[in-house]
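dumping this here so i dont lose it again. seq + smiles for glutathione
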Amino acid sequence: MTPILFHYEASPFAELVRIALGIKGLEWGSVIVPRVLPKPDQTALTGAYARTPMVQLGADIYCDTGAILPALEALPGPSLYPLPLGSLHRLVANWAGGPQFMAHVGAALGPMPPGAMGEDFIRDRQARFGLDMAALGRAAPHLAGQAEVAASWLSDTLADGRAFIGGDAPGAGDCALYANLWFVKGVPFAARSADAMLAFAGVGDWFGRMAAFGAASGRGTRREMSGPDALAAALAQPPRAISGTVAGPFVAGMTAAVRQEGTHDEATTGALLRCDAGGIILAREIPGGTVHVHFPRLGQVVTPA
Ligand SMILES: N[C@@H](CCC(=O)N[C@@H](CS)C(=O)NCC(=O)O)C(=O)O
């Protein structure tokens, strides 16, 4: 089944998934969504989850890279968790996508004049995530210093001549480290930080190897789609059989709300089909059918609704 990525070009977490799709060599659909709320094409499927990226596989909707990459892993193509690191790629990806992401946001956006970012963007991120541009500007030198640690550790890892963090094959951890650096490199005001990070021995070459899995790689094919096309693809068949369990104190089938730690975004609600360490699944009835909305367990707050 063809994965459909809901994304916008400048999103680093979307770039992480675009590179993962390139590593897998998959054909994929692309639905471009706005970088600020509202995102009606996306929330028609998720109910409320509006962060970027989201991936759809038929009537199964995957929110957060923590759910998206395991879903892509099940599709044909090279593993995103290659040995010898295997699942340890997840630990690296969570570090890169967690504290290190905020450090890279500071390195990338801190030096930017507020006008360069767009009033709508600043208002959206302030309301949803508490972004304070003045505070970010003040913290930028500190955060850039934190971000450089990732480049330094990456350089140490690559020092024995390996091509990727686990050896010959790239994995989810490489994708997440790459997305952070890609984000900083893409902001001209942050050139000093990007140059400093790419100057660590081996990091620039590794960055080039990862970039080669991107849009121009010829591996994987991107096909633009509309939101209504994606909705029709969701309604064309029922969701896939579920796995996993509902762990106490929750009860299978109860109406539950899922929201993300550290945001004021609206919760997604539905019938709870799975809630264990392996993930969360909510069933949602939408006009014309049913979708299953998948989340990772990490970072999600589940409450009865
Ligand atoms: N934990 C999430 C984080 C995703 C994330 O923070 N995405 C940013 C864009 S790169 C976002 O959602 N920004 C708000 C938006 O796009 O509406 C993941 O791994 O997918």
